[in-house]
Amino acid sequence: MSGGTREQKADHIRRLLETEGDAVEANTLGFNDGRYESVADLEDYEGLKSEARAIKEDAIERLPALIDEVTETVEANGGTVYLADDAADANRYIREVAGEKEAERLVKSKSMTSEELEVNEALEADGVDVVETDLGEWVLQVADEAPSHIVAPAIHKSKDEIARLFNEQFDPEEPLETAEELTMFARDRLGELIADADMGMTGANFITADSGSLMLVTSEGNARKSAVVPDTHVAVAGVEKIVPSVEDLAPFIELIGRSGTGQDITSYISLLTPPVDSPVVDPDEPDIAFADRDDDRDFHLVLIDNGRMAMREDDQLKETLYCIRCSACANTCGNFQSVGGHAFGGETYTGGIATGWEAGVHGQESAAEFNDLCTGCSRCVEACPVEIDIPWINTVVRDRINREGDDGRFEFVYDELVPDEEETGTIDLQKRLFGNYETLAKLGSATAPLSNWTAGLEPVRALLERTAGIDRRRALPAFERETLVDWFEARGPRVSAADAEREAVLYPDTYTNYVDVDRGKAAIRVLEAMDVHVRIPTVGESGRAPLSQGMIATADEKASRVYAALAEHLDAGRDVVVIEPSDLAMFHREYEKFLPEASFERLRDGSYEVLEYVYGCLENGANGARLRTGDNGPAIAYHSHCQQRTLGVDRYTRVVFETLDYDVLESDVECCGMAGSFGYKQEYYELSMDVGDRLADQFTAPEAKNRLVVASGTSCEDQLEDLLERDAAHPVEVLDPRSRLH
Amino acid sequence: MSAEIGSIRNRFEASLADLDVPVTRTTPTAFESTLEEIVSDPVVGTSLPFEGVSLPEWVDDEPTPATLEAATTSVTAASLGIADYGSVVLPSTPDGSEQVSLFPDLHVPVLRAADLVADMPTAIERLGPQLRDGGSAIVATGPSATADMGALVKGAHGPKDVHVLVLETEGDAE
Question: What InterPro entries does its record include (chain B) (predicted)?
């Protein structure tokens, strides 16, 4: 990416933060909080998600047969099925139906698939009046804007903006002001338009092959009207919406509203088996009783391929087809909460999973526009009701974008050195720099303090910004001349193996080893205070840095090297203790993609986050009084780490602090916004700070502002220091018997 | 009434209370007078397939587009109630229950206590054969609603209010 492109991107994001940021933030935070509350009411949330996942896996596996089955059942019911290869094919068919009906007006309920087709424009070119009846979609139609969210398309607009729009466009007798007035105005106006419609169009959240039924998830009732008032109903749906049977719908009904807008269930779950038995509502025959009508309804199910069958054959993108479009991945995403779908989205789809959809249906270029906005924080992973590894899909697409132009010959192949770089020569300098952070750190440490002075010089920062897009407003990490490994080699362990309760190897992550050596020392003292014999193995970077830049082959190679270096220790029964949560997340999540199953499981089961390990020691009889306790320690404002929370190990830090009598207040934001390298990037600096502001607000509140700021992640610490201008520390630095933090 | 049905009914009523949706128990004998207290005129309805119960004379039971448009209240049958969610299942019928239940400001679904089920999987299991037989139904939970205009508003395209009537057999009345 050139400097000019970076500036344009930064401008676009800045504009959205100013114009749409507040409305998007208020709405997405509301949905996200609602999700936590709503899923907490379920007896077996995890079980329900696994059930939903299994149904989708099975359905996509036998999709060709299900397409045949649903075609048979819909036709037996009296409807017509058309399988469209692409958007143009679908639109041609729908225009033909409209032409045969001589339709003057088509009323639509909300459908992202219809947005993907751009069917409105196709019909309007033929002179058909297309009316969006979902109130949010209608607002956008009036304003001539694109949806910013797959479920709540107009969340970027405030009530006042909508009132201004309506008052200007429609000039009502009394100016509209309240949400109630706006809603009733829209209801009346749309009600008239629906009454005279010749055709209705809906999407489908699910289609059941055994009955030919559509399931529509709505709250307004407009989909019910669109499907039932006119005599002709066209439903457009991606082929992936088919599930085998009606009974398969139950878990999705329970999950979709909770996951999306945080409602236990939406007002209406329509289960329509069209053509439906309901009589037509014909305003031209106002006095004929419904019961006396004998309507001949027409139903067309237009199933859309448009790249989906190819996604099914793509081992990496296939998971995208399990998506039920609930929007949880958007609502739970720190970046999305700040900037919304007009930045975090492609031609049609928005949010975390949009990268998969856009790459699959519109092509990689559309995904490339916003793919960087996924920082891999992984908070969407536990929110997704069908357990899609959304960060992985984003990483894979990033990798493919990096390789663009090399005709894909090198996919997942690597050579000896820095495979992604060597092979392609197409990777952006910025990505190469952050992806090879380990090399940079080694060099920086070897030449410290000179490297730190140089890096602080204004001309150097200007150059870094211009060439690599490293924002000069961020302080760069200062490298230590003496690494943790060197220090420990000279010092040696203080608890001998013979005297130890347990043996542990402390993983010297790049940051701890070269930059924040103090937290490594603190970790060693904490472990030794609990009678643990500590070793520091010679082992390289986990692969997190290159992976975050989409350099999968490099990460893969690093994973193999890390495992090779740790295998002997694991075999010897030593526990692997990890300070940096993003590295632990590599061991526990991403290494599954890189290592043989047995190796992955061995390392996963034998590695622990450092506070999780402290918790385990205390539970097994270690003497907590040997650590610094809350009696002489500070009150704490603690921010866990996004990936640590997804792993479910954040709770140990809290429990350890509480066990040792600390007064702890914890943040509840999804992510600090720094996300490793993301916040350093010139084009994303302001977005990163905006995400961070939600955390800063919590830690500058009266009850938190005098507490010691503690964070588990390196970049969270950096971000908090930048946001608050207060020092931040790792939890082990608080517990260190020698700690003087206050 | 068995203890199980009693507890499911209590759960159903608690779920409706969470949604601020009123629910009234009645019997075939008391049906008309109970209904009269809930509705506001004009009232339209579609036939109730329950033994010993029919729509009162003052309910227009053969609605047309014109009378539907003018109606303030609608009364239709629910085939199931789902206790966990406070949902009612509204089957679509050839006499127009789908639109009748949707257009007026107040919808009164009438549900037999015996048709209450505990949870969603049970309800969907019951619906499976009906959908495979060509039937359609709406799982309706509370009134129509939208938040698209900047705050939650009831009655976006459908009813602003729902009032559920639970029909008990005479012996079960408390």
Answer: FTHF_cligase-like_sf, LUD_dom, NagB/RpiA_transferase-like
Closest to A565 (Cα-Cα) out of A543, A585, A590, A539:
A539
Q: Distance (Å, rounded) from C-alpha A568 to C-alpha A586?
A: 19
Q: What is the pLDDT of residue A420?
A: 66
A542 to chain B, any CB pair closer than 8 A? The answer is no
Residue finishing a domain among A308, A332, A364: A308
Strand residues in chain B grouped as ranges (E): 23-26, 43-45, 73-77, 80-82, 87-91, 106-112, 116-117, 137-140, 145-146, 153-154, 161-162, 164-167
> Residue A503 forms beta bridges with which residues?
A533
Q: Where are the alpha helices (DSSP H) in A497-625?
A: 510-514, 517-529, 544-548, 552-571, 581-585, 591-594, 597-606, 610-619
Preceding omega of A449 cis (within 30 degrees of 0): yes
> How confident is the model over A643-682, as pLDDT tens digits?
999 999 999 999 999 999 999 999 999 999 998 889 999 9
> Which A residues 202-241 touch B at CB under 8 Å?
208, 210-211, 213, 219-222, 224-225, 228-229
Residue A248 phi/psi, 5-degree rounding, is -70, -15
Assess A182–B contact: CB distance below 8 Å, yes or no. yes
Do the domain assignments include residue A627? yes
**Cα dihedral sign, A314-A315-A317-A318:** positive
Answer positive or negative: Cα dihedral of A627, A633, A635, A636: negative
- CATH topology for B3-172 is Rossmann fold (3.40.50)
Specify if A657 maps to a domain. Answer: yes
User: Is the peptide bond preceding residue A175 cis, with omega within 30 degrees of 0?
Assistant: no
The Cα–Cα gap between A681 and A711 comes to 22
C-alpha–C-alpha distance, residues A508 and A488, integer Å: 11
Whole-number Å distance between alpha carbons of A412 and A410? 6
pLDDT (tens digit, 9 = 90+) per residue, A560-593?
999 999 999 999 999 999 999 999 999 999 999 9
Q: A249 lies in which domain range?
A: 58-308
Q: What is the CA A63 to chain-centroid distance, rounded? A: 26
Q: How far is B174 from chain A (nearest CA, A)?
A: 31
Could you tell me if residue A673 is inside a domain?
yes
Count of domains in chain A? 2
Phi-psi label, residue A578: left if phi above 0, alpha if psi -120 to 50, beta otherwise: beta
Say if A283 is an interface residue toward chain B (CB within 8 Å): yes
Q: Chain B partners of A69 at a C-beta cutoff of 8 Å?
A: none
Chain A residues with beta carbon closer than 8 angstroms to that of B150: 157-160, 162, 179, 182
Instruction: Tell whether A685 is covered by a domain.
Output: yes
Pairwise CA distance, residues A77 & B159, whole Å: 30
pLDDT in tens, A447-465: 888 888 888 888 888 888 8
Rounded (5°) CA angle A549-A518-A682: 30
Give residue-wise pLDDT tens across range B126-145: 999 999 999 999 999 999 99
Across A334-363, average pLDDT = 98
Q: How far apart are CA A302 and CA A74, in angstroms?
A: 11
Name A85's Cβ contacts closer than 8 Å, sequence gap at least 6. A305, A306
Q: Provide the ipTM.
A: 0.97
Cα–Cα dist A658/A681, whole Å: 37
- Nearest Cα neighbor of A179 from A139, A236, A146 is A139
